């Protein structure tokens, strides 16, 4: 661990101590117990799915896979970390990294699952539904108070320099995987082998990725959350879409790239280039005070211009947006908040915690905030040839070039995604 990163993390922990002291005082609490959570076994089995620690627990310790553990926060006292570390010859017990930040906590190793005692008017947050029925009464605490959780979510929306450094490093590691995935595609690999190349180059096992990687060849690139990996390569290679990430200290990278294959129509490669340009234009528009909803609407307007410039639509940009043509080609939102969770918290709430839902005509938008310094967001414009979304337009009189659309449909679609921090003067693209 570099001295610089340690100093940033120490400042981050001090920032959390000050912020939590203020939030707890405002909410009338003397202490807070944060439960890390734990995985439940599969039905009729003794194996569990992949687990991710509760976000507000990770906010302090940066450990993404710690189970049955507690963090106790009290104003003007050192954080108390109760780490579940049973004596176990079946599994390697949980242990802390040998890093200087550990000295900022009082660490208690627990061989048994415990419910720590907390004093005064206390609150407990985390996946409390998975605790035993006797645990909550024992704690004598307010369980998951909504206003407190909303305030802590709001705190997480604004990243410290340490958090941004972690997201930047996660991006660096993920990009090595993306380069390897592209090389495997050039080498005519199938989806599973491209996935394995990504994991090897990004130095992670599949259970550690922050979300299931999307590796889509040809038509699969048009399935927004494509969830399978074909074992063999297709005979014709029209396209590849890779939406894949990496964690560093719990913080996530979320990067997408699309590529034209050797069998793709020339027009598809030109569209990939155009979508890179659109992504860059949207990134350059990021600054404090900019409405993310307005950026999303800007994406649709410029997507309409791309459809027109590439002969997919023969009307005006205004008509393409108003008639829902651009929504048929790009049904998802421009992006979302990014941090300890890929789709991070507080994106659909006002600063006071009240709901800020997506607009009725853009229901998939995951971020409706006005951008401010310290936020980290994804920018991910897309252009897809999805049969079920385009089918209703075939029955309209809209001037779409169906011959070209049908030629491009085997390519599936395009999404280009970068991770961007909002700075005082504009933006910092964390995806080099």
From TrEMBL:
The record's free-text note on cofactor binding: Binds 2 manganese ions per subunit.
The Peptidase M24 domain, residue ranges: 165-424
Keywords noted in UniProt: Dipeptidase, Hydrolase, Manganese, Metal-binding, Metalloprotease, Protease
Xaa-Pro dipeptidase N-terminal domain location: 10-153
The keyword Protease is annotated on this UniProt entry: yes
Stretches of the chain forming a coiled coil according to its record: none
Record-linked InterPro entries: Creatin/AminoP/Spt16_N, Creatinase/aminopeptidase-like, PepQ_N, Pept_M24, Peptidase_M24B_aminopep-P_CS, X-Pro_dipept-like, X_Pro_dipept
Pfam families given in the database record: PepQ_N, Peptidase_M24
Catalytic activity: Xaa-L-Pro dipeptide + H2O = an L-alpha-amino acid + L-proline
Gene Ontology MF: a single term: proline dipeptidase activity
EC number: 3.4.13.9
Binding-site residues for Mn(2+) 1, renumbered to this chain: 254, 336, 380, 417
Cofactor(s) annotated in UniProt: Mn(2+)
NCBIfam families, per database record: PRK13607.1 (NF010133)
HAMAP family referenced in this protein's UniProt entry, alphabetically: X_Pro_dipeptid
Role of this protein: Splits dipeptides with a prolyl residue in the C-terminal position.
Family designation: Belongs to the peptidase M24B family. Bacterial-type prolidase subfamily.
UniProt protein name: Xaa-Pro dipeptidase
Native species: Vreelandella neptunia
């Amino acid at each position: 661990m570099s001295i610089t990163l340690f100093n940033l993390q120490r400042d981050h922990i001090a920032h959390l101590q000050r912020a939590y002291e203020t939030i707890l005082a405002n909410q009338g609490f003397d202490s807070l117990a944060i439960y890390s959570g734990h995985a439940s076994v599969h039905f009729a089995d003794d194996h569990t799915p992949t687990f991710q620690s509760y976000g507000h627990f990770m906010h302090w310790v940066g450990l993404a896979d710690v189970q049955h553990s507690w963090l106790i926060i009290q104003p003007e006292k050192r954080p108390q970390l109760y780490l579940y570390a049973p004596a176990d010859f079946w599994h390697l017990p949980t242990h802390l990294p040998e890093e200087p930040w550990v000295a900022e906590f009082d660490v208690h190793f627990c061989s048994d699952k415990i419910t720590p005692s907390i004093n005064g008017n206390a609150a407990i947050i985390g996946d409390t539904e998975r605790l035993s029925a006797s645990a909550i009464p024992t704690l004598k605490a307010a369980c998951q108070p909504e206003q407190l959780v909303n305030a802590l979510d709001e705190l997480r929306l604004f990243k410290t320099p340490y958090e941004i450094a972690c997201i930047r490093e996660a991006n660096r590691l993920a990009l090595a995987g993306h380069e390897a995935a592209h090389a495997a595609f050039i080498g005519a690999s199938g989806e599973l082998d491209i996935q394995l190349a990504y994991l090897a180059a990004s130095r992670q096992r599949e259970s550690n990725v922050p979300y299931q990687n999307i590796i889509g060849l040809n038509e699969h690139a048009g399935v927004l959350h494509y969830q399978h990996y074909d074992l063999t390569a297709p005979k014709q290679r029209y396209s590849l879409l890779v939406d894949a990430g990496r964690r560093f200290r719990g913080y996530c990278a979320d990067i997408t790239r699309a590529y034209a294959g050797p069998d793709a129509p020339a027009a598809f490669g030109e569209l990939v280039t155009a979508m890179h340009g659109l992504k860059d234009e949207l990134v350059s528009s990021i600054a404090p005070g900019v409405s993310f909803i307005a950026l999303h609407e800007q994406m649709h307007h410029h997507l309409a211009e791309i459809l027109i410039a590439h002969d997919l639509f023969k009307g005006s940009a205004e008509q393409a947006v108003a008639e829902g043509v651009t929504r048929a080609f790009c049904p998802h939102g421009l992006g979302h908040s990014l941090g300890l969770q890929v789709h991070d918290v507080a994106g659909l709430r006002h600063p006071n915690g009240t709901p800020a839902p997506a607009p009725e005509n853009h229901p998939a938008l995951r971020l409706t905030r006005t951008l401010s310094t310290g936020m980290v967001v994804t920018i991910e414009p897309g252009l897809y040839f999805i049969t079920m979304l385009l089918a209703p337009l075939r029955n309209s009189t809209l001037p779409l070039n169906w011959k070209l659309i049908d030629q491009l449909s085997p390519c599936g679609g395009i999404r280009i995604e970068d991770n961007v921090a909002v700075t005082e003067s504009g933006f910092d693209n964390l995806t080099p």
